[in-house]
Amino acid sequence: TQLDVTKKYQTVDGQPVAFGENTFNFVLTPADGAPMPEGRDKLTVSTTDAEADLQKLLFDEITFSEDVGSADKIYTYTIREVIPAEGSAGWNPSVTYSTEVITAKVKVIKDDNNDLQVDSITYALNGTPLAAREDPTITNIYTKPDPTETQLDVTKKYQTADGEAVAFGENTFN
Q: What pLDDT digit, counting tens, does each position of 97-126 carry?
């Protein structure tokens, strides 16, 4: 089974913004001993399409092999954006990074042939369940930097080749 997250990047007023040079990273961690690929305690994915403003990302495959007995078993995972440290590589001061938490619950059952099957995957965003077909989406907001102005002061010196000051006289310099 592969769990997923959708990354959305937009302005404050909802206009899409291409990822551009930004790479957004996500981590999936298990809760209460939920299975993971061998030797791994977390999974990560990153955006890869600089031209996109929306991208669905799939985490590596997770295999469920624990006997669930005659009942079903629900495994829980959390998905979060990895927020770069301010000033580090990957940090962009124009991005409001998301602190939202997605919870994924995978229901595993044993079918009539005694085989394990993923019966359902449900997602919640910050504790609020998502509709059955709704993609779990984490949105970052781009804020255009405020323009800045500066005035440059220039001093013009008019001198001979020997460095002696010369009056400007009727000369005009632009």
A: 999 999 999 999 998 888 999 999 999 999
pLDDT of the residue at 37: 92
How much of the chain is in helix, strand and coil states, percent to nearest 5? 0, 40, 60
What would the two tokens of residue 8 be?
Answer: 């959305």
| Residue pair 74/105 in contact by the 8 Å Cβ criterion | yes
C-alpha dihedral, 33 to 34 to 39 to 44, nearest 10°: -120
Q: Which of 126, 103, 83 is nearest to 34 (CA)?
A: 103
Q: Which stretches of the chain score pLDDT less than 70?
A: 168-174
How far, in Å, CA of 78 to CA of 56, rounded? 16
CB 83 within 8 A of CB 64: no
Q: For residue 89, with 0-12 CB atoms within 10 Å meaning exposed, 13-18 middle and 19 or more buried, which class applies?
A: exposed
Annotate 116-133 with DSSP letters as a single string. EEEEEEEEEETTEEPPTT
Model pLDDT, residue 94: 93
